[in-house]
Amino acid sequence: MQLRHKSLLAAATATLALVAAGQAGAAGPWEQVGDDVKSGVSGLAVTGHSDGTVHALIVRDNKKPGDNRIAQLTDSKGESASADVAPVTWDGAEPTDLEAVEAVPGTPGEYVALASRGLVYHLRLTGSTVKVLDLSPLPGIREGDDFESFALASNEGKLAAVWADRGDGAGRPATVFAAPFSYSEYGDAKFGALQRASFRAPYPTGDVRHVSDISVTGDGRMLVSSASDAGDDGPFDSAVSAAGHVRISESGAVRLRVSKSPAVLGKFMGFKVEALECVPGSRDAVLGTDDENKGGSVRTAALCGS
Questions:
Q1: Contacts of 201 by beta carbon, 8 Å cutoff, 6+ apart
Q2: Which helix (H) or strand (E) segment is 6 a member of?
Q3: Number of C-alpha atoms within 13 angstroms, CB side, residue 224?
Q4: 57 in Cβ contact with 44 (< 8 Å)
Q5: What is the DSSP annotation of 135-165?
Q6: Residues 6+ apart with CB under 8 A from 272
Q7: Per the CB 3.0–4.6 Å rule, which of 149, 156, 292, 303 could disulfide with 214?
């Protein structure tokens, strides 16, 4: 009877969590992937998915020499739900405060990782090692900018990079940037004409980071996560919103449109969402949290449908 009571209580708790999040569609429970300040998830890139299992590369915002910067995640749903993390060796100049990672479309095994001050790392993953091929600064960095997001969109082989200064509370909205993107023959990042627009998160309010991550769907819809926290022990609060569109023309020109009235797609009370990635060919998004002293968690949620 005691076991049955615990099962019913767990099911009720999960149901209440979904209702509180304000979401429709299928969703997985939160799965913890770390229990201390060094094991949060500050960014993720989906590397594969099938039969309810998502594989991803995750980055962590650790700063001390020797701390883990990057790891591989296997997140399985269903009756045997679990999230397993395996550290990946970093080969090259050790970054400080990684905040985002993105797969390079059309180039299997290559990724872009972004540090908070605007350094872009071009990476190649082989087995359990990532090698730094090159690093470059973002264009248009301003004094005080703090970056937590980076996404790549593609159309017929043309790429666009999208990223944002995260902003800070009511007095400083996020600034979203977009530009054509490519790599030179030497592996360094090349950015084209730069566009920018302001974005204010509709939720949470108060001491909010307006953009903690960005994901762009295959049809150009731009989703952002926003997050707030009151310190290393929380409380935390987050949301994912429909933030606008990114368009790439046949010539490679990029057009950024940021919504003035973004729609909240889901709220995640008690968690600081810093990683957001739409799973290709699916309505699902994979979310990752960096809950400071509480560690990190991941889950899926049906946020990416039209």
A1: 174, 208, 210, 211, 224, 226, 239, 241, 262
A2: helix 2-21
A3: 34
A4: yes
A5: EEEPTT--TT--EEEEEEEEETTEEEEEEEE
A6: 212, 227, 228, 229, 234, 236, 237, 238, 289, 290, 291, 292
A7: 149
In angstroms, the CA 102 to CA 155 distance is: 16
d(CA 123, CA 131): 6
Please spell the DSSP secondary structure of 235-294, one letter per residue.
-EEEEEEEEEEEEE-TT--EEEEEEEEEEEEEE-TT--EEEEEEPTTSSEEEEEE--GGG
Distance of alpha carbon 102 from alpha carbon 137, whole angstroms? 16
Q: Please state, as a whole number, how many other Cβ atoms lie within 10 Å of the Cβ of residue 210.
A: 28
Torsion of CA 93, 99, 103, 104, to 10 degrees: -70
Q: What is the largest CA-CA distance in the chain?
A: 66
CA distances from 76 to 157, 286, 301 (A): 31, 12, 13
Residues in the chain: 306
SS3 call for 21: helix
For each of the chain's 306 residues, which pLDDT tens digit applies? 333 333 333 333 333 333 344 443 345 789 999 999 999 999 999 999 887 789 999 999 999 999 999 999 998 876 566 789 999 999 999 999 999 999 999 999 999 999 999 999 999 999 999 999 999 999 999 999 999 999 999 999 999 999 999 999 999 999 999 999 999 888 889 999 999 999 999 999 888 999 999 999 999 999 999 999 888 999 999 999 999 999 999 999 999 999 999 999 999 999 999 999 999 889 999 999 999 999 999 999 999 986
Model's pTM, two decimal places?
A: 0.89
198: amino acid identity, one letter? S
